[in-house]
Amino acid sequence: LSAALGSLVCAQVIPGCLTADPATLAALRPLLLLVMLAQPLNALVFVADGIIQGTQDFQFQFRSMLLASVVSATALALVPRPMHSAPRLLHVWSALVLLSLGRGLAAMWRYTVDPRNP
Q1: Which stretch of DSSP H or E encloses residue 82?
Q2: C-alpha span between 55 and 97 (Å, rounded)
């Protein structure tokens, strides 16, 4: 809880040290919040990756990463935006969180449901 509160405080302080532009600060706030909220998920996914790699279950890791990548890239491609414009940074980071979520769900399935779990 204290780490979360400290992160929220830093999310307000650190961008102000880097820029004084109000538009940039307004664009950074939701992005920093998303990145902070994704860190526990990323930590669990990295641990699961380590276990999968330690058991040399590379075929499962490849397939789960491929599936999660396709879902994440599809979601990013479907984000509505003006013609011929690039996705916004928040959309890209949201797709990365979706990628981690897909990898995490695949690992959870492997450990809890799959009879061939490591």
Answers
A1: none
A2: 25
The DSSP output letter for 88 is P
Task: Please tell me the distance from the alpha carbon of residue 102 to that of residue 71, in angstroms, as a whole number.
Answer: 8
Among residues 89, 102, 87, the alpha carbon closest in space to that of 34 is found at: 89
* Per-residue pLDDT, 73: 95
**Whether pTM exceeds 0.90:** no
- Residues composing the chain: 118
What CA–CA distance (Å, rounded) separates 109 from 103?
Answer: 10
How many Cβ atoms are within 10 Å of 106's Cβ, its own excluded? 21
C-alpha to C-alpha distance for 68 and 77, rounded to whole angstroms: 14
Q: Round to whole Å and give the CA distance between 76 and 53.
A: 28
Per-10-residue mean pLDDT for the chain, 118 residues long? 66 76 83 86 94 92 96 92 76 94 94 82
Of 41, 63, 43, 42, whose CA–CA distance to 110 is shortest?
A: 63
